[in-house]
Amino acid sequence: MELKFLFCAICGILMAGTIGFSDEVIKSVQLPAPDKSGGKPLMEVLSKRQSIRNISSKEIPVQVLSNLLWAAFGINRPESGKKTAPSAVNAQEIDIYVAMQKGLYVYNAKNNTLDPVVSKDIRSTANESPAVLSAPVLLIYVADYSRMPKFPQETRDFFSATDTGFISQNVYLFCASEGLATVVMGSFTKERLTKEMNLKKEQKIILIQPVGYPK
Ligand SMILES: Cc1cc2nc3c(=O)[nH]c(=O)nc-3n(C[C@H](O)[C@H](O)[C@H](O)COP(=O)(O)O)c2cc1C
After folding, report:
1. How many domains does the chain contain in total?
2. Residue 13 has pLDDT above 90, yes or no
3. Residue 49 structural domain
4. Whose CA is nearest to atom 22 of ligand 1?
5. Which residues line ligand 1 (CB under 6 A)?
6. Looking at the predicted structure, is the pLDDT value of residue 210 above 90?
7. Where is the Nitroreductase domain positioned along the sequence (predicted)?
8. CA 116 – ligand 1 centroid, Å
9. What CATH number does residue 106 fall under?
């Protein structure tokens, strides 16, 4: 009886050690303050804006990631909490999820942090296109309908799609200014991705957008 107990205890310790080693739990990442100066002139950026699908796996420095997320949907008027992209009835229902090799995070514009969601690389779940598989950063735009409770579903869908378009265009413009490559995508495996992301019933993925350096 005692021997059996000892054997179980040893097995438990060994298993816990293995899980702890292979399943590194991701933590909140404090991003550096976004650099709001510089960048190319607007007309030059508009001339360069394009979809680029040949994306290298080279990592994006954390400062550039912070700048990118602020440009996408960061707070540009702290007194009101309003952001770099417009939002229907200021519902701010779109969250930017950030999928990287180390795991899935959600951008917290108020704290300028990446909050942990899933300690797993879910990028290949989204889409098997080379752009998604190779890009170091995959932005996933998710609408949270619980932030627009008063509207019928048709209006929620319309607002969420248009709001995502503005954010995605900010990303396109930032990428054009920074020499980064990106493409917005409506084609992704919605069901699998929703499951992997642990989304709530009221959350819906609208579009995905890989970002990286051009190949
Ligand atoms: C709502 C939307 C969905 C899109 N979905 C995809 C997609 O699934 N795959 C893809 O490669 N490009 C996708 N695109 C990118 C378009 O193909 C691209 O914008 C178009 O060919 C024009 O090229 P440009 O962005 O370089 O001007 C999408 C664009 C939009 C606006």
Report:
1. 1
2. no
3. 26-212
4. 51
5. 50-51, 53, 183-187
6. yes
7. 47-213
8. 29
9. 3.40.109.10
Q: CA-to-CA distance for 3 and 118, rounded, in angstroms?
A: 39
| HSE of 198, CA atoms in CB hemisphere, 13 A | 9
Residue 187 Cα: closest atom of ligand 1:
8
**Residue nearest ligand 1's atom 28 by CA:** 185
Beta strands in 84-198 (DSSP E): 94-100, 103-108, 113-118, 137-144, 181-182
Nearest CA, atom 27, ligand 1: 50
Ligand 1, residue 50: give the atom nearest the CA: 26
Which secondary-structure segment (H or E) carries 178?
Answer: helix 153-178
Over 80: is that where the pLDDT of 202 sits? yes
Structure tokens at 86: 């417009």
Residue 206 within a domain: yes
Rounded CA-CA distance 101/107 in Å is: 16
Look at residue 15 and tell me if it is in a domain: no
Instruction: For residue 2, tell me if it sits in a domain.
Output: no
Q: Residue 17 domain-assigned?
A: no
